[in-house]
Amino acid sequence: MRIGIMGSGGLGGYFGAKLADGGADVHFIARGAHLEAMRRDGLRIDGPSPLHVRQVQATSQPADVGVVDVVMLAVKLWDTEQALEQIRPMVGPDTTVISFQNGVLKDQYLRAAFDPKQVMGGVGYVATTIAAPGVIRQTGPMQRLLFGEFDGSRSARGEALLAACLAGGIQAELSPAILREIWQKYVFLVGLSGTTTTMRTTIGPIRSNPQTRAFLADVMQEVIAVGRAHGVDLPPDYLRSALERADTVAPDMTSSMHHDLERGGRLEVRWLAGGVVELGRAKGVPTPLNRAIADILALRAEGAAHA
Ligand SMILES: NC(=O)C1=CN([C@@H]2O[C@H](COP(=O)(O)OP(=O)(O)OC[C@H]3O[C@@H](n4cnc5c(N)ncnc54)[C@H](OP(=O)(O)O)[C@@H]3O)[C@@H](O)[C@H]2O)C=CC1
Ligand SMILES: CC(C)(CO)C(=O)C(=O)O
């Protein structure tokens, strides 16, 4: 299976390396010092299950790759528009495009750019960041990819991607309810990213302190209310499940948005807590805590240099 990884950082680099390790024909789209290091030294994953793919196919030019079976979109949300233009040479009539980015609006952008039939839904669970050019660091053992057709069917293309993922040791699942999965991840992530980034710490202390734990729960509850108002069939006790997930991840785990804040980079807050505020407003659902998170982080949203 030919797979194009658009954006080879924490998410794309990690899962792309595992796919390549499992024998898939993976083409990484990267840029800058990270691209140079990948070409020179391959791609290394540090963490609980270290991996070094010594020779990777990496380029900044999707046209060099040509048409692939699957494009996995893994750039930060602010880079989406440009990335969707750049991947066009990799997308033929039979290519599937899947975004594993965070948030709930991403697939709208894909459907606007390509034939909606080419778009499958996806969710990625992993805590990774680019530690140095050519090196991805994973915190905690969690790693999971979910993907599926929006109509819930089990397609041949989904099965083929599943087989490639499993061959690489990815905990992958073909989901019959991918929209719900995308929202379930959104609930967890908005809670995790909103708390870890504003409180500037990892999930361990946040979930242990009764006051910050209650804040985390209330942030998640707002997202659940907004999702339900938009017709998403979230399970009745979903808050409990989301908190259980927060309780079982490694205590030193944090969000990719917190990593971005620490390194002075841009933040995805506009699509995370900010997205909840926007979607809540559209349905008249109050979201005061998510608004507070978006407001607190507003000065850093474009990066430390713009504060
Ligand atoms: N990391 C994680 O743990 C997880 C992240 N996510 C989500 O996945 C998405 C990606 O996040 P993450 O992997 O952390 O981000 P990273 O910044 O680590 O990786 C994105 C990479 O894509 C590169 N890139 C962006 N645009 C282009 C382009 N046009 N051509 C070539 N390379 C490009 C970036 O380069 P440059 O640095 O130069 O901008 C960067 O190396 C986000 O939506 C995030 O929320 C989801 C689950 C887990
Ligand atoms: C919550 C987490 C780590 C799970 O994959 C994530 O998606 C992120 O921080 O961006």
UniProtKB/TrEMBL annotation:
> Looking at the record's lineage, which domain of life comes first?
Bacteria
Q: What class of enzyme is it?
A: oxidoreductase
Family annotation (InterPro entries): 6-PGluconate_DH-like_C_sf (IPR008927), 6PGD_dom2 (IPR013328), ApbA (IPR003710), KPA_reductase (IPR013752), KPR-Related (IPR051402), KPR_N (IPR013332), NAD(P)-bd_dom_sf (IPR036291)
Q: What is its EC number?
A: 1.1.1.169
* GO MF annotations, alphabetized: 2-dehydropantoate 2-reductase activity
- Report the family membership: Belongs to the ketopantoate reductase family.
Protein name from the UniProt record: 2-dehydropantoate 2-reductase
* Organism whose genome encodes this protein: Ramlibacter pinisoli
